[in-house]
Amino acid sequence: MYGAATEARSDQLLAFAAFVQSASGATEVATGGERIQSLWGGYGELVRVRLVGASRATVVVKWARLPAHRFGESGASHERKCRSYDVETAFYERLSARCDDSCRVARSLGTRVRSGEWLLVLEDLDEAGFARRTREPRGPDLAACLGWLASFHARFLGQSAEANGLWTVGTYWHLATRQDELQSAARRDPTWPARAAALDEKLRAARFTTIVHGDAKPANFCFAANATSGAAVAAVDFQYTGGGPGIVDVAYLLHGASPEATAASLDVYFTQLRAVLPGAVDAAALEAEWRALFPVALADFDRFLAGWHR
Ligand SMILES: Nc1ncnc2c1ncn2[C@@H]1O[C@H](COP(=O)(O)OP(=O)(O)O)[C@@H](O)[C@H]1O
Ligand SMILES: [Mg+2]
Q1: Which residue segments constitute the domains of the chain, with CATH numbers given?
Q2: Per-residue pLDDT tens for 135-154?
Q3: pTM score over 0.90
Q4: Which ligand lies nearest the alpha carbon of 5?
Q5: Starting from the edge strand earliest in sequence, which strands make up the sheet with 221-223, in order?
Q6: Could you tell me if 243 and 162 are in contact, meaning their C-beta atoms sit under 8 angstroms apart?
Q7: How far is the CA of 220 from the centre of ligand 2 (A)?
């Protein structure tokens, strides 16, 4: 029925349809949903499901499930992946409703976690007006992404990621979960372990911390088809959301940009951030700290890349 990436059994498909139907309030869900894409590493898929008799025409379902041969598997990559779906579920259950138009996310209609299976029934952002994608946001699109990050970081400033079920340290490249990659980087350049530890320590020592998106690349933003009113952008993919200084999201988004473009984008980010920070926050101190951490965050991501391109 749904062209499963990892051979879903018929009982799984029936349970899937029943859950989507009840979460979305539909009288029926149409068979043959459109597969948007397979999830990374064959861990499931993302499907657009047509509804009958509901207030909305479609929902998007992120359906992650362990391939049968991976049950009981261990290893850093597998554990990181399973935890990432727990984290994304926690984000939608606990924090998504606190994100308004200034850091727009898909509404969560229902979540279900079983052993080795995660179902997230989400508002279809295309249907909500965010149908445009771009791999290289510039001008107003880039400003919208930076504004989204500024609002998100301001909103969750000082809040505990751990207490909300998220990664203690956000981002998919953070050092503690990337020891295999570090070893691989060290084989080519033995100075990496000491440098990596120093960079990580500086980021961990930040006085101003918040909840970071953790994978804020252009592909995880959905842009308004015509942004005349309301939000210009919405974000998806909260698998690596967790604690940290907000600037790590900005460094990742801007990684590879020219120095001039980077300087201009940082100004856009901090202008937007200052506009939405709570009055009690020492904005000057926060900006000074995060600006100083920007090159550290870039180098920390480079540390991951150095071990990833084997
Ligand atoms: N709720 C949604 N509405 C519309 N499109 C979505 C929604 N969720 C995800 N997408 C689209 O599907 C893509 C993949 O989803 P994502 O959650 O990022 O999965 P992955 O973990 O495989 O990257 C996104 O980049 C986005 O274009
Ligand atoms: Mg994604």
Answers
A1: 10-123 (3.30.200.20), 139-308 (3.90.1200.10)
A2: 999 999 999 999 999 999 99
A3: yes
A4: 1
A5: 104-105, 233-235, 221-223
A6: yes
A7: 5
